[in-house]
Amino acid sequence: METTIEAPSKIPPQKQDQQPGLEKDMIPEPIYDNDRPGYERLKGKVALITGGDSGIGRAVAISFAKEGADVAIVFLNEMEDARKTAEEIKKYNKEALLIPGDIAEEKNCKQAVDKTVETFGKIDILVNNAAVQWVQTEIEDISAEQLERTFKVNILAQFYFSKYAAPHLHEGSSIINTASVTAYKGNEQLMDYSATKGAIVAFTRSLSQSMAKRGIRVNAVAPGPVWTPLIPASFDEKKVSEFGKNIPLGRPAQPVEIAPSYVFLASEEGTFFTGQVLHPNGGSIVNA
């Protein structure tokens, strides 16, 4: 029997006071796996995933393990969430490497890549997924500190990880960046966050052209509303309880519904995709 998806009506008002939030404190906890089998589409591969401890990153990490990959997970300081993800990965008899660190610092990005290569001997898949966001209704309220932090974590870290992973990648390798529907639609309360997601789309398209000569594919996924720790860590209780109700499907996605896009782009099934953005967004029409 497959795992069911919680409807928005079952998401009660709630608030977390830290970024990027903790999955274990969410009600209900997000769904990150299902009963469907893996098909060895990533057998023998090694993946490095930023923000892999929770939310979309956790679901992608577990899906990759189910498909046969060992996984290195980079996270800020959410050790309990990270350990839970590692336990789930090991259920599929794959290895999980946990790497804590603030990816806003370039040196930590390099160290994470180096640690992954030292442990597994290679990197086949890089998933640039980690992000932060803070709600501000007026541009005057966005401090220089917030602006810089958002850009450092959301887009500069993607440059750094790609830069340091590139020498270890090879023909057939894949880089997958997490963008957002806000890159196309904007969000009046997430101006700096939306700007970084737009930059990720341009970065993906540009890097894909540069890496094509090496046989390395670069793509992105632009999710719509997804039930992740970032939501209660960002919005007030009322907005959390209404999250995702304004899209055609009328609910937020669970992380497990987003992960298949990453599996597709990382596997041989996606070998003719590069410079592209997939849009699992619940029905929002965007100019891709």
Q: Which helices and strands appear, and what pairs or packs with what?
A:
Blueprint: E1 46-50, H1 55-66, E2 70-75, H2 79-90, E3 96-100, H3 106-120, E4 125-128, H4 144-165, E5 174-178, H5 182-185, H6 191-211, E6 217-221, H7 237-241, H8 255-266, E7 277-278
Parallel strand pairs: 1-2, 1-4, 2-3, 4-5, 5-6, 6-7
Per DSSP E runs of 2 or more residues, the count of β-strands stands at: 7
Which ranges are low-confidence, i.e. pLDDT below 50, for 5 or more consecutive residues? none
Structural class: alpha/beta
Assembly state of the chains shown: single chain
Order of helices and strands: EHEHEHEHEHHEHHE
The total count of helices amounts to: 8
Strand content: 5-15%
Task: Give a quick account of the main beta sheet: strands, pairing sense, barrel closure.
Answer: 7 strands, parallel
Strand order of the largest sheet: 3-2-1-4-5-6-7
Distance between the termini: 35 Å
- What helical percentage do the residues reach? 25-40%
Radius of gyration, whole Å: 17 Å
Chain-averaged pLDDT: 93
Describe this structure in words.
The chain has helices at residues 55-66, 79-90, 106-120, 144-165, 182-185, 191-211, 237-241, 255-266, and strands at residues 46-50, 70-75, 96-100, 125-128, 174-178, 217-221, 277-278. It is an alpha/beta fold and 288 residues long. Helix 1 (55-66) crosses helix 8 (255-266). The radius of gyration is 17 Å and the shape is globular. The relative contact order is 0.17.
Task: Give the structure's gist in a few sentences.
This protein is of the alpha/beta class and 288 residues long. Helix content is 36%, strand content 11%.
